[in-house]
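Worked problem 6 (solution included).
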Amino acid sequence: MRVADPSKLEYATLAELMPRAEALTEAGFGGLATYSKKVFIPLTRLCRDVCHYCTFATTPRHVVPYLTIDETIEIARAGVAAGCREALFTLGDQPELRYPTARRALDAMGYATTLEYLEAAAAAVHRETGLLPHLNPGLMDDAAIARLRKVSVSMGIMLESGAERLTERGGPHHGSPDKHPAARLATLEALGRAQVPTTTGLLIGIGETRAERIDSLMAIRALHERHGHIQEVILQNFCAKPDTKMANAPEPDLAEHLWTIAAARLIFGPGMSLQAPPNLRPGVLGELLRAGINDWGGVSPVTPDHVNPEAPWPELARLDAETAEAGRTLRARLAIGPAFAQDVERWVDPAMRPSVRHAADAQGLARENGWHVGTGAAAPTLIPAPRAARPLAAVANALARVRDGQRLDEAQVTALFAGGMADHEAIVEAADRARRATVGDTITYVVNRNINYTNICLYRCGFCAFSKGSTKSERGPAYRLDYHEVGRRAAEAITLGASEVCLQGGIHPDYDGDTYLGVVAAVKSAAPSIHVHAFSPLEVTHGARTLNLSLRDYLARLKAEGLSSLPGTAAEILDDEIRAIICPDKLTTQEWFDVMRAAHDVGLRSTATIMFGHVEQPKHWARHLLRVRDLQEETGGFTEFVPLPFVHMEAPIWRKGLARSGPTFNESVRMHAVARLVLGPVITNIQTSWVKMGPQGAAACLQAGANDFGGTLIDESITRAAGGRNGQHFGAEDMRKVASSIGRPLRERTTFYGQRPGVAALADA
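Solution. The predicted structure is:
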């Protein structure tokens, strides 16, 4: 909770404020500290203001008026090469109103104002490099904000101080018309009306009093309460610079800076992101964090801090280490704050939304290491957490509950998906221990063949690149196998050594319940001994409805015909909030569970799956896992849980810019680990998909709670239709090599995890 009466803060001591501020920060950010890896683009260093502490602004005698578009792109490309995600445009306030040189330069380039030129430069940088622009243009009116919103993901304008007296003669803002608090607050208000994620803050130590700082923070809070648009508040300490009128002015000491940070945390409460530049307080970053900071702002590996050029940026490794020493986990974010990145429909212009979605992970932070599901890329080398790093308190508490055999709730499961490498390492280690204790070290697999009997489908799921309309030929022609071909492929599967066939297809407009019964009959006629693992809950529901049968009666007929088990696909995310976005005409969450409950009731066992990494958030993962566990505790019918990372490349929802670019590598591995911890007591087998993860990724998952390789998947086609490149078949020898690389034995299994007659374990360790 934030402080009820901010006026009392003025006389509070630092010792009184800091513990309360630290507790609020932990409540809001769970020990996470963020930064943005950015490149600074000083579009112009001319400014009509004459702030008495500033060395960024200069005169036409010393600089060219503006960077050219080509120069801005060159700087941005250097940032991309260094791994930056943000292009921060810094510039002076409306220099054309003071300098004829600036006006002439704009005229020569074909622009009426600096803001119009900024619009063109930001658009060019985003178009040519993909960096997300954050703009600091100073005062703006509604029309300028509307135009700049289309080419940026966030903007910033420092209030610096709400004390009007600082603009009077002798004050630091005298002669600077754009620094009048009312004008800056008006721009902040306009940014809120336009729903622009906005950075603002204070420059402390320029002559203001504590009471004036509190008033300034309260003014920012009032703006945020009206519009919800303040994504972060910077609390920057004044640093005296040579060759300025304030070169000899006293700087605020550390205690005063810490007091202001702590007061700000109490004013804003746990949810507001508070930032302090790490280069301006070297050596004491831990104290800043304990006072209430949770963000380090932009750190550039390419360009200096143009506003404070005398203070070099800390190397990221050192920033990571110092953050860890303070008990926090460092994570990279985007130019738009995580909460805003998770709600781009509200906060980002349609033209910029795809770029934000494609760059973000499930927490709204920056994607890590460039790996994508299904591309065939090697698993990334993960940088270990700093030695001093410890798991977040919420993660440690959840792991303790798992060790004690207690069931986790939604918030606790969600916490297991948060944090950085220290949390990841602790969760993976706990999951691997749980796997070893539950099922031992042997990795299992089944020899199976996929038979996708049609790719023609009535449904239009946003994630699916497999299904086709009856005449659509994109990514391959539409097809429908007849019963003879289905039977032939099943018989051939026997000759290839398969013990199982997995049958799934689109919902063809001509199919009814008898069609699926005929498919099973064709398989059993051609290959009587083979295990028939077939039909998603959507197909089962379609079949039952078309024959006007209950789910239980229809499943009983399928079983009598020879169906042996069901794949737990069509689950995607078992939360209707997400299903309404990605598959609105498909099964509801309740309907999926109705099929599974009925199947288990008639003696048909099934798998359970999750498809993650598109539009959902970790809270939805938690709900999915807990709902699957609930049914397993009721029926005991699930044989395994299968995480299926979203393959984005050809998915319609991604190509339209409406989804993320699949889960990150860490998210993919952690899903397997968390599934083991949440489901392990009731679903003992966790499967990894080599089709999605690739051999190295599958190996990582097998060391993070998974114990099963799935099937050899002769003729896998659904992932390949989505752009996956990991092949159609992964045989026993391929699996043996992976198992051997992590020192584990390999064994072929039956569909129900029994020992296949006549098959011994393949040990190589």
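Discussion: Residues 452-726+738-745 form a domain with the TIM Barrel fold (CATH 3.20.20.70).
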